[in-house]
Amino acid sequence: MLESAAGWTPTPIGTQLNTDELIKRLARISAGQAHDSVRLHIPRTLRVIYDIRNKRDAAHLADGIDPNLQDSTLVAGAADWVLAEFVRIAGGTTPDEAFRLVKAITVRRIPAVEDFDGFLKTLRPTLGPGDRVLILLYHRADDGRDRERTRVLAEAIPTS
């Protein structure tokens, strides 16, 4: 995708890609010829994802720290950002539609909330009603600011 965005012929699927050389080639493109995200930001972010995926576990074996949660959080967030950045720079949609797509890609994830066809369920029974409302509002992000929706969320939470 980066090669195509830079105006080059993409490397065929199944062909080994020299990522280091591609990153250097993209960085050498003049600033006016390609978007900075294509030239610099996306390639570098993808390199971080690649390195975490392929090299991280070996670095942590000696210290006894399991890096899975922190690494998966970084990789998921970075991958969301890359996808959102491609949507943003690709064009072909209205600004409002691009914003909606980017927002959907970079949705907030809360392991204490599950969405069952639009019905939100808090998964931590030890939370009090106030904490449940706060978690649900955070999960809903911009959709949770509406007073009516907030009332419905609050009424759905058992008080005992």
Broad shape: elongated
**Which segments are poorly predicted (pLDDT under 50) over 5 or more consecutive residues?**
none
Structural class: mainly alpha
Order of helices and strands: HHHHHEEHH
Our measurement of the CA-to-CA distance between the termini, rounded to an integer number of angstroms, reads 53 Å
The order of strands across the largest sheet is 1-2
How many helical elements?
Answer: 7
**Quaternary status:** single chain
Helix content: 55-70%
Mean of all residue-level pLDDT scores: 80
Strand proportion: 5-15%
Instruction: Write down how many β-strands occur, each being a DSSP E stretch of 2 or more residues.
Output: 2
- Cα-atom radius of gyration: 21 Å
Describe the largest sheet.
Answer: 2 strands, antiparallel
Q: Could you name the key traits of this structure?
A:
160 residues; two-stranded antiparallel ribbon; elongated
What is the topological layout?
Blueprint: H1 2-5, H2 19-27, H3 36-60, H4 68-90, H5 95-105, E1 113-116, E2 119-122, H6 129-140, H7 147-155
Helix pairs in contact: 2-3, 3-4, 4-5
